[in-house]
Amino acid sequence: MVTGSLLLMYLLGLALGATAGFVMHRSDYCVAGMFRDFFLFRKTFLLRALALQLLLTVLLFEAARLAGLLPLFPFPLLAPPSLANIIGGLLFGTGMVLAGGCVVGTLYKLGGGSVLSLVACIGLIFGSGLYAEIHPWWTKVIQATTFQAPTRTIPQFLGISPTLLALAVTAASLPALYKWHRDKLLVRPFPLAGYLQPWKTAVVMALIGLCSYVLVGMPLGITTSYAKMAAMLERLVMPEHLAATMFFQSKPLEVVHPLSRTLLEGWNGPQFDYIWAIQFPVIAGVVLGSWASAMLLREFRPHWRIPPYQFLLTLLGGIILGLSSRMVPGCNVWHLMGGLPIFAISSLLFVAGMIPGAWLGGQIISAILLRQTQAAGTPDEQ
Amino acid sequence: MSNDPQSRIIQVDMRGQVCPSTLLVAMDNLNRHGEGLQSGALKLLIITDNREALHTVPATAENMGYAARITKTTSHYEILIGLPDQER
Fold first, then answer.
1. What is the number of structural domains in chain B?
2. What ipTM, to 2 d.p.?
3. Which among A365, A374, A381 has CB closest to B10?
């Protein structure tokens, strides 16, 4: 429980982010790519690792809850279920494929030296700021489509114990897990220096999610910080507009952490508050961790000579990601690796939108890439 | 892989490009130049810095009956695709 000390929160976020960035870079643990490549190439290898991570997270979160380590359950900032989760998820799925990575994927790729991921990150900040402009209208959509029952999770909705559902999901997954283990479907021969089998990254990511939830009261999440960065930039260039924008005045986080008795407060605006203290160190950590991984492998080689249309494509993808992550609200890390394991209804709805979104993104990006490649003509010959 | 000096090499530089460019463009070239590659007159050289592509591109090429060889240079990886030795 580190919520009593801001310094400890910063250090913890950096450590968790750096560990995640390092292992994600080593396994190329790209969530956008997992869904995209299932639709484009019928590849399921990395999706199996993700499924393992989610199942482990279900068990770890439930064990921690039973042990009394998760007094905030469900965790704060988790939106009530509404149609916005699906629509936002659909846009998010498309955006993450066009951007070449989800919100965390772009960060570890940026740390690994990808110039396009830097462009996607700029798009993410811009898109998050853009959301503030449509927030009053979108709030009405959310209000009109929020399910009225005051429940956040499936167990709450069904009136059953979360333990029962966690055990049922685990039991239902065991045959698949056994088959993957027996047929060695979670490992692949890949004699690449520094390669980490993705199932190991899945285990590390599940533990990182647990550490975050137990120690700061919520699982990994980073996208509100992009909105805060947009607000910080807006304060520099048009402070009057910032002051008049309703979204940046709102305060999504206000809860006392029962174990540390600390009042956790956070705004969507440019304040350095608890949301910033929880999320920004993770962002910085992921970039630093993957940068360290790339440097140790001597593979940090940013390459700028890229077809110009790809800068536009990833910028657009980043903008859609930023915009949709506020519309949902939340990103794939928050919902997939945090909300889904506690059977949050809004997270299920987000995933139900994100998957067809990734299919759509895959169709768009493959059509653009192939058309541009063929228009560029025959490659160099020697 | 055969080391035929007569083979022309088609070189595609995919460094820094958005995913899944490397695999898509490799597949496109394998299909477009199938005749030359299968006769041994051509080889395909993919230059990349994408670690995942070092698995997916050779796996795809091998599924199509080709051999793939990966070489690491100081700034990138090269995947050379051509006919396997026994078919020459």
1. 1
2. 0.90
3. A381
